[in-house]
């Protein structure tokens, strides 16, 4: 194993405990399979591996803890399969519930921070520009690379915790500056200012971007003054679920793209880049793909993928304006937001209006939505929920803005204001 | 060079196995595409839907990368429903990590070898994969 230094080789041989040895061997094997010449130190990790898919993942986590494995860098946890805060009810059978709980506890026992959120970057985990890190979960990876400018590949199950314990990652892919340059320019400056100022654009733009660019790296021009952090979060999440996007640049907004030329690696590279000018008609095609249901039936509403920020929770509360929903409205968020809501007494008020707060998990990764059977329709403002809900929950989907979601939840049927797309 | 001449493939993860060949005609995502409890292909859009990967020499023309593919493969190994061997055109580290972890857990793991598409298409109905990477008719 010439990939490893002497020190790393000693760890892999079990010199610092069997758990640390197992973690180092897994990272080294991943590096060999990816063709990485060496390992590099990392500053932090975000771990997606604590979501229960079956007993073997729990047994792996417990083998690490039994071997004394501890995270060696600050590490946050993505969602699990249970809501440990008790805000919402998860309908898992007893055996799965027990194994999911054991898995979550094992990751906490290794020293991971119990953040249980897919928006760790809004719960205080924000590595500096240019830092190498090992993050999992597709939206978190896209945000970390694109908006924070830290460097990570898509670290999947098992490799994420192995990197966190060994404080190492294979040196390849997006850790290398030359692999982070844009080769495609996406010009959206022809879209109306009203559309660019509307939150409903960003999941749709992200869906189009993911479908069109796949794993190519693009730089978007024309969003200066429009792209807030929550909008970039929605764009990246939709792009990552539609097309495996791990990094995108926004000219004048994201840290590696003061302008399009810099994002491409120079004026000549910019001239060579493919250029796509996006128009409203093309985007309306992506908009249509997000909804799979027809008619005005709505059985439940889900928002918060990625998890709602406190700002987004404020917006939900403002739009509800004291009214009661006639359909269940699930608001998925992290316990960092729940704490803030509880401190101000707003959680109880929201629940009294018919909102179910879902913390530590979300409605497409574990059974929370009511089992209505054939024909059930979920409304959402999330491109990611729209992508995964049909396969994972059996619900057909209607996509709309947050305001549309709230109005539909109150009315008990689909209400959608399409003016921004005209 | 065909398998009937005694082909030797590049070893990605070592081991030995024998089984009936299941050569997929389209790439597959293990997560959402293969049932981790049974090994049945469940992706509604996949041409080999309804086939079972358990105990087969599985030839993959490509994988679609969900980062939970490794979890599905680990679960298949744990449930005794893993393929007898995996042949792939390019190493997919996310999928193969499931075998790396299974080996760390002390569970018996199938070998994984690199094999180009033309060689996959020319495989006989049943093959044996040797510890040296030799793929021979069985």
UniProtKB/TrEMBL annotation, chain A:
<keyword id="KW-0408">Iron</keyword>
<protein>
    <submittedName>
        <fullName>Aconitase X catalytic domain-containing protein</fullName>
    </submittedName>
</protein>
<keyword id="KW-0456">Lyase</keyword>
<dbReference type="Pfam" id="PF04412">
    <property type="entry name" value="AcnX"/>
</dbReference>
<dbReference type="InterPro" id="IPR007506">
    <property type="entry name" value="PMDh-L-like_dom"/>
</dbReference>
<feature type="domain" description="Phosphomevalonate dehydratase large subunit-like">
    <location>
        <begin position="4"/>
        <end position="407"/>
    </location>
</feature>
TrEMBL record, chain B:
<feature type="domain" description="Phosphomevalonate dehydratase small subunit-like">
    <location>
        <begin position="28"/>
        <end position="102"/>
    </location>
</feature>
<dbReference type="Pfam" id="PF01989">
    <property type="entry name" value="AcnX_swivel_put"/>
</dbReference>
<keyword id="KW-0456">Lyase</keyword>
<dbReference type="InterPro" id="IPR002840">
    <property type="entry name" value="PMDh-S-like_dom"/>
</dbReference>
<protein>
    <submittedName>
        <fullName>DUF126 domain-containing protein</fullName>
    </submittedName>
</protein>
């Amino acid at each position: 194993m010439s990939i490893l230094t002497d020190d790393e080789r000693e760890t892999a041989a079990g010199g610092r405990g069997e758990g640390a040895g197992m973690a180092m061997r897994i990272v080294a094997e991943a590096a060999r399979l990816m063709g990485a010449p060496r390992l590099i130190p990392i500053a932090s990790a975000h771990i997606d591996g604590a979501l229960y898919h079956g007993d073997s993942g729990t047994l792996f986590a417990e083998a690490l803890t039994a071997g004394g494995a501890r995270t060696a860098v600050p590490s946050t946890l993505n969602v699990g399969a249970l809501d440990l805060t008790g805000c919402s009810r998860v309908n898992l059978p007893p055996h799965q519930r027990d194994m999911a709980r054991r898995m979550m506890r094992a990751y906490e026992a290794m020293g991971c921070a119990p953040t249980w959120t897919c928006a760790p970057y809004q719960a205080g985990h924000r590595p500096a520009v240019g830092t190498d890190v090992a993050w999992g979960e597709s939206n978190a990876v896209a945000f970390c690379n694109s908006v924070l400018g830290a460097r990570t590949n898509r670290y999947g199950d098992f490799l994420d915790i192995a990197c966190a314990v060994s404080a190492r990652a294979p040196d390849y892919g997006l850790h290398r500056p030359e692999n982070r340059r844009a080769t495609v320019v996406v010009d959206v400056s022809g879209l109306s200012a009203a559309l660019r100022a509307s939150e409903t654009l960003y999941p749709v733009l992200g869906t189009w971007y993911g479908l069109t660019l796949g794993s190519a790296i693009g730089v978007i021009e024309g969003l200066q003054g429009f792209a807030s952090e929550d909008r970039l979060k929605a764009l990246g999440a939709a792009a990552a679920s539609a097309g495996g996007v791990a990094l995108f640049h926004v000219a004048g907004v994201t840290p590696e793209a003061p302008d399009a030329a810099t994002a491409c690696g120079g004026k000549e590279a910019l001239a060579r880049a493919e250029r796509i000018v996006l128009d409203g008609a093309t985007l309306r095609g992506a908009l249509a793909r997000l909804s799979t249901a027809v008619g005005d039936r709505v059985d439940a509403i889900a928002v918060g993928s990625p998890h709602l920020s406190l700002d987004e929770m404020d917006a939900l509360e403002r739009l509800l304006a004291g009214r009661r929903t006639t359909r269940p409205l699930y608001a998925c968020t992290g316990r960092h937001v729940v704490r803030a809501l509880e401190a101000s007494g707003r959680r109880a008020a929201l629940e009294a209006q018919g909102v179910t707060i879902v913390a530590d998990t979300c409605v497409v990764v574990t059974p929370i939505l009511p089992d209505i059977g054939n024909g059930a329709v979920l409304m959402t403002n999330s491109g990611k929920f729209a992508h995964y809900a049909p396969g994972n929950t059996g619900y057909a989907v209607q996509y709309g803005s947050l305001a549309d979601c709230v109005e539909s939840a109150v009315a008990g049927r689909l209400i959608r204001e399409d003016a921004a797309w005209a | 060079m065909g398998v009937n001449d005694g082909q030797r493939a590049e070893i990605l993860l070592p081991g030995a196995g024998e089984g009936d060949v299941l050569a997929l005609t389209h790439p597959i995502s293990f997560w959402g595409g293969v049932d981790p409890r049974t090994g049945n292909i469940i992706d509604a859009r996949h041409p080999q839907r309804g086939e079972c990967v358990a105990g087969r020499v599985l030839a993959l023309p490509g994988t679609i990368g969900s980062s939970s593919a490794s979890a599905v493969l680990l679960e298949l190994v744990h449930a005794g429903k893993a393929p007898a061997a995996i042949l792939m055109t390019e190493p997919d580290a996310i999928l193969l990590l499931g075998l790396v972890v299974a080996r760390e857990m002390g569970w018996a793991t199938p070998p994984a070898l690199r094999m180009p598409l033309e060689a996959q298409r020319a495989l006989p109905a049943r093959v044996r994969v040797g510890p040296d990477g030799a793929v021979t008719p069985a």
